[in-house]
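[step 3/7] fold_predict: job queued, chain A
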Amino acid sequence: MKKLFLLPALFLGITLFAQNYAKDWHLNYSPKDTVYGIDLINAMKEVPRPSNAKPVIIAVIDNGVDVIHPDITANLWTNTKEIPGNAVDDDHNGYIDDIYGWDFLGSLSKDINYDNLEMTRQLRDYKNRFGTKTSKEVAKSDKADYKKYKALEEKFNKEYEKANGAFKIYQNIHKYLTALSNELDSQNVTVAQLEAFSPNTPDAKLGYAYMMSFCQKTGMTPKEIFKQFKDAFDYYNAQVNYHYNLDYDPRKVIGDDYNNVADNKYGNNEVKGPEGEHGTHVAGIIGAVSDNNVGIQGINPLVQLMVLRVVPDGDERDKDVALAIRYAADNGAKVINMSFGKAYSHNKAAVDAAIKYAESKDVLIIHAAGNDNKNTDKESNFPTPRYLDGTSCSTWIEVGASDKDMNPADFSNYGKTTVNVFAPGVQIYSTVPDNKYEAFNGTSMAAPVVAGIAGLIRAYYPNLSAVQVKQAIESTVIKPESKVRMPGTKKKKTKYKKLCTTAGYVSASAALKAASLMK
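[step 4/7] structure written:
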């Protein structure tokens, strides 16, 4: 999972959120105010809840969820076949005390927080296979793989050097800002209070100079700037020391046979994991409790959130993803949200088999398109709905991110044939651990918006199939007539029909109305 955060050069974007983005903008739709959300408020008013509506299970396959968050706990799925805390596999499914779901990233005593990128793992495998052999020393049957190895090594080295260079920059700035913070009574100071402060040490003085410069350029508070640079430092620290570190391999903590998908008896029931920030945010978008006068409103009030942890700080592993999909399908999930992706796949066959299994169980899969502003028609973002045999999953929706002005988000991936819809994914305010709330950007936020709508339709109309729900969502998108900004560019304009299969972004009210007319 590649975390998305705003680098200091983009600080202006955060200032704009405070001025122009309401906390619930993604739920509303008001063209006169240039708010192009999903129109959920009108949907709930205009389409009354049917008498046969019932809660629907939505599986959140992510990096974990804080199950004691007051805005989430009442809407959690619970495995009623298990007796909590008795350390016995009561339902004989191979998972002991799996009350809210399962954590596939650990053993009974330890969790994995960081992992490599998939390209790092693949490069390590190639190095173990070829060692220091030259092209002339490689057998003819291995020539093709050796060529892939050298191409991957070249790409890896470029990416590592770029990350390492950025890390050194942020390492120094982090050092200076930390020195400044250590001399302040609190980070929660105003710019005026900071101007009157006199730092003592050389490092603190450098930190002070950086801070004053950023405050003047961005209009942000010192506390916000401290946090942004801490996030940037943590991001590049993880890249250098874990994501691109060929000597780091945490899988031995789990103790499984990684290449054997049938070896599935590992993990634990601590579904939050070491962090759980990303997954908690995703879960809140889908189903934060809406009638408790606390925090935010989730999209689907009739939801039971199943938690499956497979995403570390790094790239998820195909085996864990496959097992989580199967767990969700076996335990009644009708919608699966997957807000993660990567550029390489280790065992696509195993993931394909799991997706086919979920498809056969009438499960709708919602997947985030990715945050690299790239065309996924040309560069894949795994997992994908297209199977190795050339067929595709019929119950899959690939989601790009849009902003409140109906533009695709600058960071969003797109694809005329590979992305299906766009949905709000900029400055989405939702739950995070420790009873808190934050606004995040990403297709990771857009996917649960669609998952929430899909779950709402399946709750209201439980007899509709996953294919019908997909049709209701995709056939009712709002299609902007004007051109919009091309992701990753400053001035280039394009139309949504060149960015996704439906040529638009989702509408909860239109989709719910369409579903109400289906047989």
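[step 5/7] annotate
Confidence is low (pLDDT under 50) at residues 2-19.
The two ends are 39 Å apart (CA to CA).
exit 0
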